[in-house]
Design brief:
This protein is an alpha/beta fold and 305 residues long. It is built from 13 helices and twelve strands. Helix 1 runs parallel beside helix 2, helix 5 packs across helix 8 and helix 10 packs antiparallel against helix 11. The radius of gyration is 17 Å and the shape is globular.
C-alpha cells in the first residue's frame, strides 16, 4: 500500500483523480489538502469534503493557501470547471468540516509521522507544498516522493505558450519546490496530453458505477464542451488522474532526469526549464503507455459501487 496525500483544487479532473484513489486497492489515502486554483480555496475545501463523502471515505481535509506566495490572487477558471468546480452540478454543503490545522501544518505533521513513506501528490498550484517546506526544513527529506501534476518540458504550455496552469498560478512556490532537494516526479503536459477520456468513456463509467461514475459523467458535459471549444473533440486529458496513477504505477511512464527551474518573471513566467545550478534532478515523465493508463483508470472507476 502506498500512503498518499493529494493536494488538490477540485476541479473536474481532480474529482476523477480522487475517485481513482478511492478505488485503488494499492493506495492508502491519508488525507486531502485544499488549494486555490480551479476554484477558490474555500470552494476547494468544500468540494474535497463533498468528494470524500460521495466516495464514503473518512479521511481528513485541511484548508490551504488562498493566494500565491508572491503574486496577487487571480480569478478561478470557471470557464473550464464551472462556477462551483464541478461543471453544471450545483453547490452543496458537505456534512464534514476541515481540520483545524492549515494544509502546511497538516503536511508537515503527516510527513513526520510517516517519514520516508508518504507520497505527496499535488495536482494544483504548489503553494501549500512550498509553505510546508518553509515551515519545516526537514519536510523535503521526510516525504518519500513528490509526484506532481504540472509543468511541461518539451510540450509547451496550456495557459500561455510557455506555461502549464498549475505552475503558472504560483511560479514562485513551484521554484521553492523544484529547488528543495526533494525527490520530485513531474507528471506534466508531455504525458497528460497523450491520455484522453472521451464522452463514450464517461458513459461507460456511469453505466458500470452509477453513483460515482454517474457523478463524473454529470461533471464531464461542461468539461468536454470546454475542450471542444478549442478543437479537441476526442475527449479531455487525464491530467490529475495520471499523477495519482504514476504514484503506484511508475512502470507505465518513461522518465528523463533533468534539473528544473521555474521562470518567475517576464513573458515566460511559469515555464519549467533546465536549471543552470547544482540542484537535484527532477524525474520528468516524457512518455506514457497511454492505453494502459486509461484502461487502469476506467477499470477502477467502473469497479466503484
Amino acid at each position: 500500500m502506498t500512503k498518499i496525500i493529494i493536494d488538490t483544487d477540485p476541479g473536474i479532473d481532480d474529482a476523477m483523480a480522487i475517485f481513482y484513489a478511492a478505488s485503488a486497492p494499492d493506495i492508502e489515502l491519508l488525507g486531502l489538502t485544499a488549494i486555490f486554483g480551479n476554484v477558490t480555496v474555500e470552494t476547494a475545501t468544500r468540494n474535497a469534503l463533498r468528494l470524500l463523502e460521495a466516495a464514503g471515505l473518512d479521511v481528513p481535509v485541511a484548508k490551504g493557501a488562498d493566494a500565491p506566495l508572491a503574486m496577487p490572487p487571480f480569478k478561478p477558471s470557471a470557464h473550464v470547471h464551472g462556477e462551483e468546480g464541478f461543471g453544471d452540478i450545483p453547490a452543496e454543503t458537505p456534512k464534514g468540516q476541515a481540520v483545524a490545522e492549515s494544509a502546511a501544518e497538516f503536511l508537515v505533521r503527516m510527513a513526520r509521522d510517516h517519514k520516508g513513506e508518504l507520497v505527496l501528490c499535488p495536482i494544483g498550484p504548489l503553494t501549500n507544498v512550498a509553505l510546508a517546506m518553509q515551515l519545516d526544513p526537514e519536510f523535503a527529506s521526510n516525504v518519500d516522493r513528490i509526484v506532481l501534476m504540472g509543468g511541461s518540458y518539451k510540450e509547451g504550455g496550456n495557459i500561455t505558450p510557455y506555461a502549464e496552469a498549475n505552475i503558472y498560478h504560483d511560479p514562485h512556490a513551484a521554484e521553492v519546490v523544484f529547488a528543495s532537494g526533494a525527490k520530485i516526479e513531474m507528471v506534466g503536459l508531455d504525458v497528460t496530453h497523450r491520455i484522453l477520456c472521451s464522452k463514450e468513456d464517461f458513459a461507460t463509467m456511469a453505466a458500470a458505477a452509477p453513483h460515482l461514475g454517474g457523478m463524473l459523467q454529470d461533471m464531464s458535459h461542461f468539461y468536454l464542451k470546454f475542450y471542444e471549444s478549442f478543437g479537441m473533440t476526442e475527449g479531455c486529458s487525464l491530467h490529475d488522474p495520471a499523477a495519482v496513477i504514476a504514484c503506484t504505477h511508475p512502470h507505465l511512464f518513461t522518465p528523463e532526469n533533468v534539473p528544473l527551474t521555474v521562470v518567475t518573471e517576464g513573458e515566460h513566467i511559469g515555464e519549467t526549464v533546465l536549471a543552470d545550478d547544482s540542484r537535484a534532478d527532477t524525474q520528468v515523465l516524457m512518455a506514457v503507455q497511454s492505453a494502459e493508463v486509461k484502461a487502469l483508470f476506467l477499470d477502477r472507476i467502473c469497479a466503484l459501487s
